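Re-run with default settings, no changes from the original entry. Doing this only to confirm the output is reproducible before filing.
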Amino acid sequence: MYGRKYLTVFLTMFMLLAVSGYAFAAGFKDVNNHWAEGQINKWAENGLAGGYADGTFKPNQQVSRAEFVALTNRAFHIDKKEAAVSFSDVKSSDWYASEVAAAKAAGYIGGYADGTFKPNNPITRQEVASILVRLLDIETTTEGLSVFADTAQISEWSRGNVGAVVKTGLMRGMPDNKFMPLKSITRAEAVVSLDRALEYVPGVTKPVEPKPLLETGLEGTVTYNGQPVKNAAVNIFKANSYEVLKEIETDSEGNFKIKLEPGKYDITAVTDWEVSFNNDITIVEQKMTRVDLLLTKAAVLSGELLDDNNRPVKKTTMYFTTNPTFVTVTDNDGKFKVPVYPNKTYKVRATDPDNKDEKPVVVKDKLEVKGVGNHNVGDIKASFDGEVIKIGGDGSGGVSGGDSNDQKEPKLKVNSVTFVVDDRQETVSGVNNVFTVDLTGYNDTDMFTELTVRATQNATRASITIMGETREINFNQGVASTTVKNLLGPLDTGEPGISLQSLRTLLKVANDIKITIYGENKDKETVEVEIILPAQK
């Protein structure tokens, strides 16, 4: 269609996405070693791609359906003069109304069965494949789809389109041999796909460009019903192990990224009501392995962990294993709640609170779990003595054994500190109230944007001091989070956070951040967060 018409025409665009128009100077600071670095910089040098005022391009940020249509119209000079809006959710006053109408009139997009276009939804890879095929009038084919491990996830309506763009080299699979049809396309992918579309010649397959090596680790996206899920808990295990090696949460776009040593790993992702799992993942040197997790409805188990004297065991970790393993922690009353896969049999382990350095103890050898939904499994009996818990509210009732001093609230404690740098989470547990955050794998230009402190449930507030500037944040059920922008106060530069290079300058006198937490009973605990920064170049 339009591919042949404009095949030999020199195409220009005022800008790639609806960004601030920040000019390209010495390169975007967040695309170094990115797989699309070459195309992004080429477009920027030619004035076809813009960035942000902080010198970034944000290559991994999602693109909406309306934004991608606008890009395509500009690239292929689609006429918008007489096109009329025909979708119920696109108003004539919307900035994208003429773009969507023109794309519909040109015949390279369609809407949904309910008459909507969903302009603000992130556009998926299979939807982009459909646009490119219609735009360039490429013959559809399903040949070659079997090479992808996730071929079953490609929607029936898009299978011929995906096969066509793969055959012509307009789109590629992922390093883990998946196409990821439901994944939202990123700004980097938008640049690359349109760049290839502009250079497309019928019958010629564009060769695969070599990709620079990446850091070693694991990344992916957690989705439910095709939509990204933020704040999903992602646990990393050594392969065939039940103890958590690392834990992180997905960001606002459902993405996660974590550095790992080469080896084999298992991974789970959970929300309050959904679960997902992938096992025996191989991590190799200098490569980010991609694993996407699709959540399904869970069986949510609840019950109470009792010691051998029938006393509730509080604040202890429990492991529900059938490969995968799902992990939870009992509350102050010994009660637990954990989402797991339905219709499986689990072995349940628990950590002895008096011997936390020992391996967890099997407390139930076989726990049969039925279908999805809530399941109260009752009491689970441990073979060890738990800590004494005060059940009554006035001191007159509850568990006997020990005086009132044995029934105090748990000791105030900081359990972990999480840094968000370059949209990635680094979570560390402390030793003797010192939390060491190793950021040597990052660049000086990477931005430190958020800080989260996890403490015992009786924590009420925290004061955080950086170079004499103190800010207070409140705890909610043992968790306190703040943006670095808020912490900086008068030191704020207007950026979303602070670069690691600037952080080094601030911390020349002392390489730590002091955090003091306060409890319900005027308890106070101070910890130090030591930061290991990238070596100066």
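The first strand starts at residue 217 and ends at 224. The radius of gyration is 27 Å.
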